[in-house]
Design a protein that fits this description.
Elements: E1 4-10, E2 15-22, E3 32-37, E4 42-48, E5 62-68, E6 72-78, E7 83-85, E8 91-92, E9 100-104
Antiparallel strand pairs: 1-4, 1-6, 1-7, 2-5, 3-4, 6-9, 7-8
Length: 106
């Protein structure tokens, strides 16, 4: 029952994130706000599920478009300050974080 989230991400050093768009979970979101900082490599995503109802299941939260800076492997980190909430605005505890592996090739 995911009602909304505030994700704080750290971008990899081998790629620069240029855009962040809503994935399937938030495609009809009432609120979708993103900030990308090229100076410190951080990103913030704030979104709510469609009409503030809860989302249950699996899907894509957001799609990131990156520009390669260097070849190699890197990790997209979900920072500890990230917050998930149910449709009743109850905090959801994040038990495990699965970081995104990015492979940059030339």
């Amino acid at each position: 029952d995911l009602g909304g989230l505030e994700l704080h991400l750290s971008s990899p050093s081998n790629a620069s994130v240029s855009t962040m768009t809503a994935g399937s979970i938030f495609s009809n979101s009432s609120i979708f706000f993103d900030t990308i900082s090229s100076t410190d490599g951080t990103m913030e995503l704030i979104a709510t599920a469609d009409n503030f109802t809860g989302y249950t299941g699996s899907g894509v939260l957001a799609k990131l478009t990156c520009t390669a800076l260097n070849a190699g492997l890197d990790t997209l980190h979900i920072n500890d300050s990230s917050i998930l909430r149910t449709s009743l605005n109850i905090p959801i505890t994040i038990l495990n974080r699965m970081y995104g592996l990015i492979e940059v090739v030339e």
